[in-house]
Amino acid sequence: MEEAEGNYWITKFRFKLIVIYFLKITLLSLAIGILLTSMATFVAVNSVMIFAVTFMTVFCGMLIFKPTWGVTKLEVANYLNVAYPELEESAGLLLKPLQDLSLLERFQRDKINGAFPLPNSLKKASKGIWVNLILLIGVLIVHQFLPLNTLVSQPPAALTNLNAVKEQLLPGIKDFNVQILPPAYTGKKTRTQNQFTLKAEIGAQVVWRIETTVAVKKLRLIFNDREIITLNEDGRFSRVINQAGFYQIELDGKKSDLYPIEIIPDLPVSIKIIAPTPYTTIDVGQVPKVNLAALLKDDYGISDAYISATLSSGKGEGVSFTEKKLSFNTDVNNKMAVRLTKILDLTALGMKPGDELYFFIMAKDNHGQHSRSDVYMVTIVDTTELMSMAGMAKGIDLVPAYFRSQRQIIIDTEKLLKEQGTLALEEFKNRSNSLGMDQKLLRLRYGKFLGEESETAIGGEHDHEEGEEHTTAAFGDVKALMDEYAHKHDIAEDATFFEPELKKQLKAVLNEMWSSELRLRTYKPQEALPYEYKALRLLKDLQQKSRAYVAKTTLKTTKLKMEKRLSGELTKIVQPTQHATFEHTDRSIEELKILLSILEYRKTGRAFNYGDRELLRAGEKQLIIAASTHPTSYLAALKAIRKISLANNVNVADIDIVQSTIQKLLGKEISKPQAPVASPEVNLYRSYFNHLQNANQ
To answer: Which parts of the chain span the membrane according to its record (predicted)?
Structure first.
């Protein structure tokens, strides 16, 4: 072979390997995709999407975890050396230029030229194609001949009938249907069903149409065992459903089963504010803007949403309030879920340092229901108030001297920034570093309030002093042995008497002082100023929290009439009388408890007497009241208790249903304190003691 022919043959062989690899993973992806698509039809999922997602997942996964498509010529040559011993591990010589080969390598290249083309070079690589092809054919046969896709061809109405509730109809009913017309604001279409069990939107118009096999004298609908509606000859009746309950059909004195009426409520708009936090403070140096983001959800659509903001300016008697209505950047457009954003520009709203902004979100749905969020608050720090000495002379102040020190650091920093243009660079750095030292000293003084004894006390290691030795632990004393190898210290924070909330704020003060010191020592006083102001604000809040307010109280006495004083007249002093009124107590809870025990005795086969049946009727009334508001929870028990009252045989399943529902009605009973009861052994000891005492006497 010529010089370029060996390289060409290996390049061609590499291309064939890559084509075979892509063909194998394509067949495998088709087989798995068709198989999962056939299985997905059982749950009526979109089969096209399932197939596309499965095919792309398997195909891309094979490309990533087995990247045969990236094989190089050298790797192909190594593969040929392993598969064909006659190449004598020299296939790589075909890839090198002839002038780069030594004399011995040229002789070896000429020797292996006779082995090309290699026989059955693609036999091993092509085996996977046949395996995947057989798998794909098998999956196609299963998909074609087994009825896996019958559910997909059915209309949506057929799918709903599969889950329809099985109902027992009166023998005289020939045909019936129930038409539900949802309110217009829901955007839902009119639907018709062939079952009496109702589940409708609140405010929906429901139309019953009932046909009988023969003419009947009386066809009535009984709602909640109280309201009776007589139907016309055409068997049609219409009503607006606004509350849950149950009903039954009466046909010439024969009553049907109880059918529940469930209501789909229309809830107001749900408002969730993602940002900002409920209380936001704009410190010195921060941009006076707040990003507002909220997520609104509703059942049928949101018609309007806006921000109601109230700006509070001034203090004391000069305070003023300004209300504003702000709109969002995004229109709701009757969407059921929408994310709304708004940038609150505090400067544009007219806020100044010391002002407060209160805002909340108002939303209205398509039904006209209003909802509002919690009130959020934004404040801008007033530097003038922080620098004032008001309140320093009165009240309890834990560290009054240190307040002045922090304030002095701020004054010196602002003075340094004003004089920066007139100072030499070296002097500017020295003054900034000196302020950093002052901030450090102040931080260490405040650290003492948290129990820190030195600068290295925060998370630092402890070095033993010279001559400090550990005592030898006694043999068998585990605690002393542990003390020898585990040096223990008191926790610094526990060495103080402050409350946890106060400690938390003191930690925040130290963090701000750390940040301020860092920037002062790196000659960035402009960046340190916001941290200094924030530390002062936290200290000011700490001072206010330490003050206690006691309201002034006065003693008001009844004015005495001097003309009656010391006269001795007792005519208007009468004997006290006590009036008591006896009200009728509700015994429904006690009756339900007794009914539980009666039903338990009924399981043994004991028949009901007159008193038992009265309690059954009382329990039935309680279940009727409960089922009229929550039919899904109590209607089954109402049916069961009526069966128990009429049946001669014992049905344990019905009794269990009624008992569990009564337990739900009773709820969890709160245990009452009771006098301790002595055990029999204690009584025996006491009797023996009394007997001995009487014998001694």
So the answer is: 17-36, 42-65, 129-146
